[in-house]
Structures are given as structure tokens and as C-alpha cells.
């Protein structure tokens, strides 16, 4: 049984008739695996995981056929039951470490708060464990940083503290939402190495939300490609990078600068991502897709959960033509 099972997840803002920000998403995460979710800004990557964490407030509306984590139906849990899981077995690292930490409390206090809530540690035991966590995320002078406030830390150190808080409860699944976006290039590589090292050491599953395909190629085993709120392709990283099945995946790979060396301009798709009032009747990519046929414009393709490589496309690019 998968650690995380998402079936037909929909997230809307407004009312039940509003255009879904996340549209019919189904996805599994296995124990101990690294899964990347990629797509451009606004594709629904972060909202999907925020729905899982219970961070979508009104007027947000969440519906799903199943939202199961480690045998628990998250849709049926009350607030108290959810708090026993969120932050402990299921944790998240956010994009901006400077806003993820509370500026009014020291680093040590914030880590100890997680330990008190989820592991029932207090006093010297909590303080010692907080120190061990700072050392684990490779913060230099960890003992002196316990009494530091977030504004006294660099962006890289702040993100390491946020990671320490996220792993304090020894989670089974860690979600990292663009964890290197606000950091410079050298620090980005260090943070990614740290996350992968922790994932292996603690044998936890890692969901990495990113728009950087180079990071996906180096870190993930499987990848979910999202476009306009939908998962358009889910598959193994080597297979998708070698022979993508969905035209949007192909376009993303073609837009990598290394693939366009010598070309006059980067490869692009014509047109724009459909908005609230101009969503096509059929496939959401059909107005921009160079392979679109007549039925693509009037029918919505679905992912085939039984297929080895799933693509929301009537004519997958990796499918041999008879």
C-alpha cells in the first residue's frame, strides 16, 4: 500500500462552480521514494501539497475521492486528529525561509516547540535534541545559534533551521516546496544535498516541488508534470527525460538551455496557459499543442492509472504508431 494516495483531488477558490486550481489530480507516493512535481508557476504544484497539509482556508474548497496518508483518511480527521499527523509524520519545508520562521522567537524555542508538541520532550531533553537537530542540518556553531533570532541568520541558515523543524518529528513524508528558490546558487546545491542525505538517513519519502528540471534529473526517481492544475504525465525520471509521453513534457525539456545550444532562440510553445474564462472544452493544451487532432479540442483525455508511463494525452509521443 502506498504511503500517500491522492485520488481525484480538486481545489477551488470561491464556490463549487469556480474553475479548479487543482483539477482531478491522482497521485501516489511510495515509502522511501523521491518524487518531483514540476510545472510552471500557477500550475497547482504548491496548492496540491497545501491541501494535503490542511493549509487551504476559506474561500478554498477541497474535494477528493481519497486523500489517504499512512492508512489515515485526511478528509475525515478532525482538527485534533490532524494535528497528531501534520508536523510529525507529514511535514513541509516552505519556499521562503525568512517568512516560515517566527521573528519573535529564538531558533531554539521554535524547534523545541515542535519537540514538545509531537515527541512530548521538554526542558533539557528538548534543548539537547534541538541542538542535535541543528548539528544534523550542518549549521556551524550550532550551540550559539539556539539563542539567535531569525533576522540574525542568513537565508541559507534560515532554510536549514526550517528543515530542522520539519524533521524534528521524524516524518515519514517530507514535502519540500521550492526549497532553494530564495537562495543563491552555491547555497542551493548545499540545501539539495542536505535534503537528499536526510531522506536516505531517515528512510523517509520526499516530495520535491520545483520548476528546475536539472534538479529533477539529479534527485528524483519519479516525476509528476503539472499543467493548468492537471497532472499531465507521471513516470520514471529516466524514461520521461529520454522519451516524454506528453507534448507539454516534451516542450519543458526542449526549453532547457542546454538543449537549445546553437539555436537562435529557446524552444517555446505558442499561446498562453488557459485562464479562468478561456479554458478549452477539450484537452487544456490543445490550443497550443503542435500534435492536436480534432478530438483533442472537444474531449478531455485522462490519465491511465494502469499504464507504466501515464500521460493525459490521446496520442502519447512514446506510443508506437501501428
TrEMBL record:
The protein's name: ABC-type dipeptide transporter
NCBIfam families xrefs: oligo_HPY (TIGR01727)
Primary site of residence: membrane
Keywords attached to this entry: ATP-binding, Cell membrane, Membrane, Nucleotide-binding, Transport
Catalytic activity from the UniProt record: a dipeptide(out) + ATP + H2O = a dipeptide(in) + ADP + phosphate + H(+)
Primary enzyme class: translocase
ABC transporter domain location: 4-253
Keyword Nucleotide-binding included in the entry's annotation: yes
Compartments (UniProt record): Cell inner membrane
Bilayer topology annotation: Peripheral membrane protein
Record keyword Transport present: yes
Functional summary from the UniProt entry: Part of the ABC transporter DppABCDF involved in the uptake of various di/tripeptides. Is also involved in the uptake of phaseolotoxin, a toxic tripeptide inhibiting the enzyme ornithine carbamoyltransferase. Responsible for energy coupling to the transport system.
Top-rank taxon, per record: Bacteria
Amino acid at each position: 500500500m502506498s504511503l500517500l494516495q491522492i485520488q481525484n483531488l480538486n481545489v477551488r477558490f470561491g464556490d463549487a462552480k469556480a474553475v479548479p486550481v487543482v483539477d482531478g489530480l491522482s497521485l501516489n507516493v511510495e515509502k522511501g521514494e523521491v518524487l518531483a512535481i514540476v510545472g510552471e508557476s500557477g500550475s497547482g504544484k504548491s496548492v496540491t501539497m497545501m491541501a494535503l497539509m490542511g493549509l487551504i482556508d476559506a474561500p478554498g474548497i477541497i474535494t477528493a475521492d481519497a486523500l489517504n496518508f499512512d492508512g489515515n483518511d485526511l478528509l475525515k480527521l478532525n482538527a485534533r486528529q490532524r494535528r497528531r499527523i501534520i508536523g510529525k509524520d507529514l511535514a513541509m519545508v516552505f519556499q521562503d525561509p525568512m517568512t516560515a520562521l517566527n521573528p519573535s522567537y529564538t531558533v531554539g524555542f521554535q524547534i523545541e516547540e515542535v519537540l514538545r508538541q509531537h515527541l512530548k520532550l521538554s526542558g533539557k531533553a528538548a534543548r539537547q535534541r534541538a541542538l542535535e537537530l541543528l548539528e544534523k542540518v550542518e549549521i556551524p556553531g550550532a550551540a550559539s545559534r539556539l539563542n539567535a533570532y531569525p533576522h540574525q541568520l542568513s537565508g541559507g541558515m534560515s532554510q536549514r533551521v526550517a528543515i530542522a523543524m520539519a524533521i524534528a518529528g521524524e516524518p515519514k513524508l517530507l514535502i519540500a516546496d521550492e526549497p532553494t528558490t530564495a537562495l543563491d546558487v552555491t547555497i542551493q546545491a548545499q540545501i539539495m544535498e542536505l535534503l537528499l542525505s536526510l531522506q536516505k538517513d531517515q528512510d523517509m519519502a520526499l516530495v520535491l516541488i520545483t520548476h528546475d528540471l536539472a534538479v529533477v534529473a539529479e534527485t528524483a526517481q519519479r516525476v509528476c508534470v503539472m499543467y493548468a492544475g492537471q497532472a499531465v504525465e507521471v513516470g520514471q525520471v529516466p524514461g520521461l527525460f529520454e522519451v516524454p509521453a506528453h507534448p507539454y513534457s516534451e516542450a519543458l525539456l526542449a526549453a532547457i538551455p542546454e538543449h537549445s545550444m546553437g539555436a537562435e532562440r529557446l524552444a517555446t510553445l505558442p499561446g498562453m496557459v488557459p485562464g479562468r474564462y478561456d479554458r478549452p472544452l477539450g484537452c487544456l493544451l490543445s490550443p497550443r499543442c503542435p500534435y492536436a487532432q480534432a478530438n483533442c479540442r472537444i474531449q478531455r483525455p485522462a490519465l491511465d492509472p494502469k499504464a507504466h508511463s501515464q500521460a493525459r494525452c490521446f496520442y502519447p509521443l512514446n506510443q508506437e504508431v501501428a
